[in-house]
Design goal:
Layout: H1 3-11, H2 20-37, H3 39-54, H4 62-71, H5 80-98, H6 110-123, H7 128-140, H8 145-161
Helix pairs in contact: 2-3, 2-5, 3-4, 3-5, 3-7, 5-7, 6-8, 7-8
Length: 176
């Protein structure tokens, strides 16, 4: 069984969501999002969420970290609230990385954003920068997003040029 299936089952169980109608609605939200985004991309959203909430790179398995470092510490509540958060990050992920329309076409930086996100997506080997962008987008709801993306890209390239290992890349950036 896939980790994301176990996480889904834990969060739509009767223990997490006692009301059947609510459980059915929440399950539908999860399934729709996963189907629209795709399994691999959906799992990467969960990894990014995990990094955003814990504010550190993975130390253990995804399920273990959600259980021990997020749910048990009260950083996020199981059930409907968790799935709402997954939906929020899923929508951000889709807008930034799939549809590439997070910066609206009425913004003067729209075309630059599309070009830059395409380049970053294709050329950056690490994926932590995605969590940084999603966190910023959620926290600041679009304000100065393109400028932040450029600063993040600059930081990534500075570390790449100076030979910072992938495991240490963007470490200061994770201190949000």
């Amino acid at each position: 069984m896939r980790r994301i299936d176990v996480l889904k089952a834990q969060n739509i169980s009767p223990d997490a969501i006692p009301v059947q109608i609510t459980r059915d609605r929440v399950a539908k939200v999860w399934e729709t999002l996963e189907n629209e985004i795709g399994e691999a991309e959906f799992e990467s959203i969960l990894y990014s969420m995990r990094m955003i909430i814990i504010k550190e790179k993975p130390q253990e398995d995804l399920l273990t970290e959600f259980d021990n470092k997020i749910f048990k510490r009260g950083l996020l509540q199981r059930g409907e609230k968790f799935v709402d958060e997954v939906k929020t990050y899923g929508d951000l992920y889709r807008g930034i990385f799939i549809d590439k329309d997070y910066v609206p076409n009425t913004d003067v930086n729209h075309v630059k954003f599309k070009a830059m996100i395409h380049i970053m997506d294709k050329e950056f080997e690490a994926s932590e920068w995605r969590a940084c962008l999603m966190f910023f987008a959620k926290k600041f709801t679009g304000t100065l997003f393109y400028e932040f993306m450029l600063a993040l890209e600059k930081k990534y390239l500075e570390q790449w040029v100076s030979g910072v290992r992938k495991t240490n890349a963007l470490e200061p950036t994770l201190k949000f």
